[in-house]
Each structure stands twice: as C-alpha cells, then as structure tokens.
Write a structure and sequence with these properties.
Structural class: alpha+beta
Strand content: 15-25%
Length: 73
C-alpha cells in the first residue's frame, strides 16, 4: 500500500539568503552561450524567433553541429 505524502516526507531546498548562489558564475557554460549568441563570427542566422550558431565545442562526431535557441520577445 502506498504511503500518502505528508509535509514531513517532502524535502525542499530552502532559498539561500546568499545571493551569490543564485547568480550565474563567470565561468559557467551558459555565460559562454549567451556571449556566442551575440557574436557575429559564430552566428549563422538570426530573426525575431530564433538564433542559430555553430557550436565551438561540439562533442558529437559529425560534419555539422549547430545550436538553435529561441529568442525572448
């Protein structure tokens, strides 16, 4: 028989008072991705819906590897 979930069974991460944990780190991969989206040398296509860039660090064996990101409106 399944146990019902009670508030004592649920573990939640309490938001930290330290704002440094909630900020993106300088060397984080997403920071490099944000920079690459604005870099015209790697950007292949851009419109109001998406941006296409060539991946600098592709880990897949193949001739082409692109990243397609939707744009915030």
């Amino acid at each position: 028989m399944a146990r019902a979930l009670s508030p004592t069974n649920i573990k939640r991460k309490v938001p930290s008072d330290n704002n440094n944990e909630n900020q993106i780190k300088k060397g984080h991969w997403s920071t490099g991705l944000s920079t690459a989206l604005d870099d015209e040398s790697v950007r292949l296509y851009k419109d109001d819906l998406c941006t296409v860039i060539k991946d600098k660090f592709a880990k897949v064996c193949g001739d082409f590897f692109y990243i397609i990101m939707n744009r915030d409106r």
